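Regression test attached.
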Amino acid sequence: MIELDPAETFRQEAADLLDSLETILLDLGQTPQDRDLIDAAFRALHTIKGSGSMFGFDRVAAFTHDFETAFDLIRKGKIDANRDIVTVSLAAKDYIRTLIDDPDSTDPIIGEAIVEELHRLIDGGTEAVPAGGIEPAPEPAAASAGWRIEIAFEPGILRNGTNPLVLLDDLRALGPCEVEADLGKVPELDALDPESCLISWVVTLQSACSRDEIEDVFMFVRDEMKLVVTPLDEAAPISFPPLDMSLPADEPEPGMTAPNAALAPKAATAPERPAIASEKAEPGRRNEDKGSTVRVQAERLDELMDRVGELVIAQARLSQIAHSGTDLAIKAIAEEIERLASGLRDTTMGVRMVPMGSLFGRFRRLVHDLSRDLGKPVDFVTVGEETEMDKTMIERLADPLVHLIRNAIDHGIESADRRSQTAKSATGRIELAARYVGAQVLVTVQDDGAGLDTARIRAKAEENGLIQPGASLSEHEIHQFLFHPGFSTAKTISALSGRGVGMDVVKRTIEAMRGTIDLTTIPGHGSSVTLRLPLTLAIIDGLLIRVGEGRYIIPLSAVEECIELTAADEARAKGRSFLSVRGELVPFLRLRDLFEAEGEADPHQKVIVTSIGDTRIGLVVDQIIGSHQTVIKSLSKLHSDVTMFSGATILGDGSAALILDVAQLVTLGQVRAESDRTPEAA
Amino acid sequence: MGQLQMPQAAAAGAPPVQDASLQVLMVGLGNEIFAIETDMVREIIDPVPVTRVAGARPFLPALVNVRGNVVPLADLRIRFGMPRTQQTADTRIVVIEAEIDGDAVTLGLLADKVYEVTEVSGRQAQQTPRLGNHWRPEFIRFITKWNDEFVIVPDMARILG
């Protein structure tokens, strides 16, 4: 049913590798001496090159080869990775990504320029290596006669997808080889486990290649094998008895060190690693420790969530029927199913949760590039990467966060000169943090820059005619103008910010995710933007209400309180739509009018006071039915022109109910309130 | 809207003669019979409670629950300027999947009566003629004959666009 396109698999794998490569390179920028990081980067490149050529991405393979060769010099310790090298390497990484995603959009000349630049930096670092001299110098000890290589894998190696024959082929690529297999450990056919690799090999390689080159062939399996490489001169006299194909062979090859140990469990071999086995910490493999993972298409998760949503709805109907009857057996089953359905729902939601770290990682590059372009050194600190959120939420959060981080660097952090005039360190600091608060996630972007210039925002707001000169406003109210469309205080428009599009888009995106955005600042010490977001988009707690004949859902997170609309209130309102809630004037909307409800209004109308941020609005309804666990279904594309509703859900009786878009209603209420105010002022 | 319908416009500009016969579902709306391609039709269900959507376009007045999915309910009679009639024992909802701007969209069509699945031939097709005093010709792919009656093959993408 599902056809796996190998090229697509490669693209996905490469995307993961490039992501981790980026992280590694950025880490390397901080700790240039870290051998583990250099090795990890090299391994990532090597894999991309290998699978790239395997799947026909020849340009990728060719470029990665050049890049890898240059990087090999760093790995061999000939030069240190410095910031410039990291920057060029990042560019190279981007180029590889383009080559994979959209090879036609790019020109090989870019790749050549990158490789050239990399060589220039490396040559500058060593002075010794000529421009084209990327071939590693042969190890003096490498006798031209060649090497004797003893190879024994762990039995389980085939199950990990390693093909020993491919590795042997790689060895052959280094020079003429004589390969000899030791079948001594292979049991009788009956006892043979075809997934165990019990064969070991002795290879005589006639090549002047270096020891490193041989080890590189096995770099991915070093932990799972015994490898002994000895120069031919030192090796025991080589004898090549004709291959004995009769099974079993009794004698292990002479000179093969401890084949038994090699075939024993890993723990046994570990202490006696062959002499030349270099120590390998494996930063690139850290993830594997967290347990195995399965890659699943996002659509399938969405489908699963839909099914679970339907199940929850069907279960609610079942419960309703069971409780209206007297059959105890049905009631018991209904309760059992309720428990199972809610468990399944929680698990399914959990499956969709991904840690914020995957998102935060992307911003390190952004900060690195911005900090370089703007000449502002910045420390980027992330906290709470393990905080989990619904995958779709995380994706939608990416753009707003990019914007906030850009703002923080561009506007927030002062230039190094200005910082040095204050007590601050020359390096700015941006902290991106996530944490749980109840059923919500708080994401903060905090900088230690100059803070918001309230006076300038105010001046700009006056200039734009948003406020009357001299109007009395709190600082907080003034800061809200930053979220106004087209509002920018940047004196010059840079490539990054100052166009006045952005903060309003950020605010709208966050509100569309049913979140809120808040801004605080301490002049001279920096600002912080706090996003408050629900954990998931799929299910919300709602308040079920009735307006006329129709039933609707109001997201409970937007509800502040429910009060009765008294006759006195009605009289006081006199057609104008304001309500006094504990002395504060709150505009209200009659949903009956808005929804053109038919029939008589209920005698006791209720007001549900809702709020988005600081703005409150009352919604007048006929009846409050109660709270309702709401599985959100988005509205059809055909209803994209409908503004008052953000989605729909299915109620216990199987009918559909619309979910009110409180943010839209608040805006609508404000517009009406304005038009009510204006005649008063006139 | 205009540029979104370009592919359809090109198709409609060509003479609507298809050699291949078309398998269709005959649906009664008011006094007319519409032929809806069976490729689009997902299922036919009995009327279910509808949820009115305030602020939606008049011909898409409501939502219905179709097997756990909330889908819009379209009333083509309104789109074709026909009078609305009371629900009868013959009333059905035809659930179709139409392609709109490249996305598959599921919706219900209110039908006064559902007749049968049959084949109409493009050869009998007639250029959109007389009928259309209050009809917008761009909503009609072509008109053909079935049992000596004129039937309308509607252009769903345009009607819904």
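Expected vs. actual: identical. The two ends of chain B are 7 Å apart (CA to CA).
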